[in-house]
Amino acid sequence: MFFKSGHTARTYRLLLLTLLLRPFGNLSLAWGMHHFPSLLAFAPLPYLQALLNPFVALGIGMLILALLTRMALLSVADLSFVLPLTATGYIISALLGKVFLGEDVGSHQWLGTGMIFAGVVLVGSTPEKSVVPVDQL
């Protein structure tokens, strides 16, 4: 389904890695910034100090890795497959924010999250539309 070659297992491993790195990177970044003692403004010094926070640094590193895995994923799967499925990261992010950060996730946010999930199911169930010849890979 939507793969450029027979790398199905590799594609799903990259997808899983991307789906985990982005939300956990965002969680780490948010955790670090919520526990940063000073208010960030236009001055660059507080931002540089925030980068020294281990949670902020870990979050940034995870988000960089997520970008790299997404790039690798796009090299083996169609954009129409990758974008909706990586959007499920928003569902994971909402859950992580609720559980670990104590954020108030209201009914409208859960409804939107459910709509994202329904879209993922819809896209995941559609047949492949594009075929890329093996010599063009």
Would you write up a description of this structure?
By secondary structure, the protein is mostly helical. The protein has one domain (8-129). Helix content is 70%, strand content 0%. The chain has helices at 8-34, 44-51, 54-76, 79-86, 89-100, 107-124. Residues 131-135 have low confidence and may be disordered.
Major β-sheet profile: none
How many alpha or pi helices? 6
Shape: globular
* SSE ordering: HHHHHH
Q: In angstroms, what separates the terminal alpha carbons?
A: 16 Å
Q: Which class do the helix and strand fractions yield? A: mainly alpha
- Strand residue content: under 5%
Overall pLDDT score: 83
Can you tell me the number of structural domains? 1
Give the number of DSSP strands: 0
Radius of gyration equals 18 Å
Percent range of helical residues: over 70%
Low-confidence stretches: 131-135
Short description:
With about 140 residues, the chain is mainly α. Helix content is about 70%, strand content about 0%.
Primary descriptors:
6 helices; mainly alpha; 70% helix; 137 residues; disordered C terminus
SSE order and pairing:
Blueprint: H1 8-34, H2 44-51, H3 54-76, H4 79-86, H5 89-100, H6 107-124
Helix pairs in contact: 1-3, 1-5, 4-6
